[in-house]
Batch of 4 targets.
Target 1
Amino acid sequence: MATVLAIETSCDETAVAIVNNREVYSSIVASQILVHSQYGGVVPEVASRQHLETINEAIAQALEQAKLNWQQIDGIAATCAPGLVGALLVGLTAAKTLAMLHNKPFLGVHHLEGHIYATYLSEPTLDPPFLSLLVSGGHTSLIYVKDCGNYETLGETRDDAAGEAFDKVARLLNLGYPGGPVIDQLAQTGNPRAFALPEGKVSLAGGGYHPYDSSFSGLKTAVLRLVQQLEKDGKQIPVPDLAASFQETVARSLTKRAIACAVDHGLNTIAVGGGVAANSSLRSTLQAAATQHNLRVLFPPLKYCTDNAAMIACAASHHLSLGHTSLLTLGVESRLPLTQVMKLYGRE
């Protein structure tokens, strides 16, 4: 398999990694959380500037950590979609420049495909077909993974992504940014059954509900109204109980849909990816339900749940081994369906 250096700058982490097949030689992640926390969320222009200031050092560190030189690198990759356009351009431009300078193949990688490959980094036996549950700040999807570059979306969120809901609820509770880790921490001391919060359901035109699609905007609104009512009544807001109840509702909703989707499509493995894959309630709830249905559920190590370049390099290494490369004229896209991933390699 190919040894690939990959760059990930789709949002607020400047990441560079070198991977051969599923073996990580180096992984550097420079987080911008402290920079953006003062704004309560990611500011795109600030993110782009931070990438520019950090990327050269991250590349140098990745090579040094891997103890490799450019002659030992088979290809160079970068996330090109989806994400913040300015941020993506920084990583893509750097990767193209390095590819031309060192005469290496260039690959543009889909960010969500990277999250699918995050589980490959710790699971040598994982191979398609399987179901991927992608849960992050911008995406919540159930993906039928048929092969490298061959994906079918079976379910998705109709409004807020799961991670986005965590951030918004954290803001309502004055917990700061990012919301996922702090809500998870507070929930450890709260009662997950203190408040009955609604699971979002997506109605079908002919009646009934979509079995795999999610909705989290109603849940977020329910928390808002609960907080407003408590404040109106002059009561103290039980933040740990609210955090635990909200988190348990999200975990239950995602688990119910993932299990049903896997069973209905005859898939015995569920691989979870994205930042919300680090959530303790989702991990325990989904694992317990999977055991009851004789399904295997796989979570990446915590360091590969959030954005990183190792997952991007792993996906690129597989594509390059199959002869897939991208043109140097490839641009960035803020939105690109995962089902169109082969478009990045000139194959529809």
Note: The beta strands are 3-8, 13-20, 23-31, 75-81, 106-110, 130-135, 140-147, 150-156, 269-273, 296-298.
Target 2
Amino acid sequence: MHVKVVCVGGGPAGLYLAILLKRQNPFHDITVHERNPEGSTYGWGVTYWRGLLDKLQGHDPDTARAIEEASVRWSHGVAHVRDLTIRHHGDEGLGIGRPRLLDLLAERARALGVRLEFESEIAEPPADADLVVAADGVHSALRARRAAAFGTRVTSGRNHYIWLGTTKVFDAFTFAFTETEHGWIWVYGYACSAVTGTCVVECSPETFTGLGLDRATEADGLALLEKLFADVLDGHPLLGRPGAGWLNFRTLTNRTWHHGNLVLLGDAAHTTHYSIGAGTTLALEDAMCLARALHEHRGLPDALVAYERRRMAELLSVQSAARYSARWYENLPRYIDLPPHRMFALLGQRHSPLLPYVPPQLYYCLDKAAGRLQAVHGFKRWLGPRVASALQARSSAHRG
């Protein structure tokens, strides 16, 4: 049986779902609508890990091969704190330019017979579609019109951030923390092609206004950031996009991901803080899960329920890690004056639910001991969520 699928949003989630559904059944009628012109996209590079490539290989080897060939790799992390540098060997990471990723997915979708309609905005689900997929991002118009039905909740982070490009090609995933008279400002940098890199710059609201970034023109703001991170950039410029300024990260959740024949995918369904580098991976995994559910269940309602249950369960640990990672950066002064090797170690442990409630020096000693004593490690894993839950409950009671 073939179905008519309308996918709203031409990002990674929507395009990859179209690819997978066409591979399952070439007779499916699938159209992807994207409101922006072809070739225009926000953002610079995206990062992912080897595990995603393995999953892509299992679902569509052609797409996996194209993405891998267009990606760059690194296996080290580097932290610059004041005038000190620490290098740490880690898991292999990969980066790819977001425009290049979208081009590859669009090319594969077209080759399979998917219709791509650019500069096409869909405000309401088409009446003749069997399935409508809202893959139109955190600001999804389809979801916003039914916010009550989906149980949408959005919270804004405290810190400010901006997503930039650079001609500096980083040889490792790079963190650089710079102290100013108005507080700390830092950058996450990584390569996304052989000639470009990505820089995400973040700071507290006090530093943001103290440095005048809230009032600076785009050119003046970039010039200031280039000066602050001159050592890391090696003289390379930072690159912005028109209209893409400073933001506060928006964490979005929904009580349910489907309503009738309308289903949410990717950032339209959930967002996770950029500091864990999982956004694109999660969007592609959403597409895999939805395609699998539609293949395994004959009835659409059963398929959508199965998709929602499976992905919500899989996301729990990732969303928790993202929340604690964001909190770590929002509380940077708590960690920044530790000896650099300890600070870097706790940067790697920022996903821990126990870390915010234990003195950093003590946590470092516990974590180091846990590396030698499995029993301590097990106790820490058991204790962390319980302490965090109890302290959060006590904090809520006091606020009430």
Note: The first strand starts at residue 4 and ends at 8.
Target 3
Amino acid sequence: MSKTIVITGAGSGFGALAARALARAGHTVYAAMRDTGGRNADRVAQAEAYAAEHGVRLRTVELDVLSQESADAAVGTILAEAGTLDVVVHNAGHMVTGPTEAFTPEELAAVYDTNVLGTQRVNRAALPQLRAQGHGLVLWVGSTSSRGGTPPYLAPYFAAKAAMDALAVSYAAELARFGIETSIVVPGAFTSGTNHFATGGHPAEQTVIPAYEARYAGLMDQVAQRLAALAPADADVSLVADAIVEIVDAPDGKRPFRVHVDPANDGSEEVSRVADRIRAEFLTRIGLADLLAPQSVGERTEAPA
């Protein structure tokens, strides 16, 4: 069944690939990105060209996850054009690299703003519609760094992704009685096919860098090279888009809570399996097992005795 989908941060990387894959699967997809009339104008043109060439419903919408006003306007545009919204894909993110000490608190807050608070702004814009219609899917694009291998010099990004994962887990229970599903896609370290490393930020303050460079000379390049070496030769970033399509196309109420796409196998899947089992067992122990899966319209909505 065709769905109307919005994907944040869909100008490049996972977001752009997923938008195209979902459109090819027959869905109406809004590839959300900021500054569609400026620096991302070429990406808007590319999406339009792709839609025309393949005869798919791939559209773009202006959405800056740093602005509640922008998120509200984007959802309003989608509802005005499509009349509905079925799936929200939280994909927008920003990576920074460098010694953790070198980043100011304000720089860490900026990473948190994009990767975590941005999802909250989009949820506040979209969830009233999903709750009112009694169904929907919120799909979060996380990172194996939340629970798997964590190489150094990526702490602000890792911390933000861990926070986003925690937010997603809490939302899953809070949305279940509205009939809204939650799925978390957990990509591993894809060092090619995305712009994460190429467009990643660096600390503006450079005074402590020499001290770290003296002890950890060339470490960031070493990390990137070694992560790339871990990935099998056939590890294609499109695997993440394929996983997103498979989740969206799964029957309502039958979607997996978490799906790992980690060719390098950094251990996150094993740790998450334990954490998600404990979550399920604990909610069951305290009489809230109904929060582990969305309830269909017409099912009991009262809290269990």
Note: The first helix runs from residue 13 to 24.
Target 4
Amino acid sequence: MKKTSTRLADGRELIYYDSRDDVVRDAVDRRPLDPTVTTSEIRRDPLLGDAIAVASHRQGRTYHPPADECPLCPSENGRLSEIPDSSYDVVVFENRFPSLAGDAGRCEVVCFTSDHDKSFADLSEEQAGLVLEAWTDRTAELSHLDSVEQVFCFENRGAEIGVTLGHPHGQIYGYPFTTPRTALMLRSAAQHKEQTGGRNLFADVVEKEIEDGSRIVLEGEHWVAFVPYAAHWPYEVHLYPRRQVPDLLALDDDARTEFPKVYLELLRRFDRIFGEDQPVTPYIAAWHQAPFGPLDEFEGVTRDDFALHLELFTIRRTSGKLKFLAGSESGMSVFINDVPPEAAAERLREVASK
């Protein structure tokens, strides 16, 4: 992998990730952009103990542009975009409309391919591996920022999810705090460790799923994917490396090599859940990594007690119908799942690639 860092016209950082070492990236951003102005603010909820970001400047962000005006396509034929070069493999840049910025963290955009009409599932294994290298590199870089305590790499796919740009891309958030969901996992891990005489919660969950087998979706030599026993979403898969590690940085070469094959198969199965004649499946793919900030409040656990894993889920519950977060989910955080996890796993096995 070759990494080339540059700056956009308004001062934001942009990084090219190339599979070839001989590629030269010296294109200049020729757009007349004013410096980026953000108003991100972190506010803590005294009742729930969590935090929210107030980012009013995002109201003016780009919203469903036509394909020939896509800001994530390369700059070519006289049309200038966020990517100055006329082609790219994988590129990462600071979000022009960030939810988090300055002392309140950082937001980046990850473009998986220059091909506007592809999705992640259409990538080659080599290209998917390059995206993994970009996620890993950005996790390492953001972890060194004073304003970042946790790094979150994720992809939103589909208009139903709320995606406003059709180009295949994801995002990376550098939070200035440990997120509420991760905090819940760490508290559960601490409690489990104390109650079991030092056993690891994540390892026990994975071992139990493998032993049961009814919710296993697919297994590789270095990765295992399953629908969790208490899945929140209609179709939800958790993907774990068999060797427990706290973050992307700690994955070994064998796991990195196998990841593209396993992950691409999962994504392709997701697109076949509801039938070959149905629209592509909207989903969220989320990497859960151990925080880099202090864990003093989670007594008895360290970063090594956390387990890197990816959670992939869709809000579509059946053909043409979405799972809405209504009263119970939004008002009380109690999910009601319409699809039994065992049935979801069986369906995901049925649509395996031939």
Note: The CA atoms of residues 189 and 318 lie 34 Å apart.
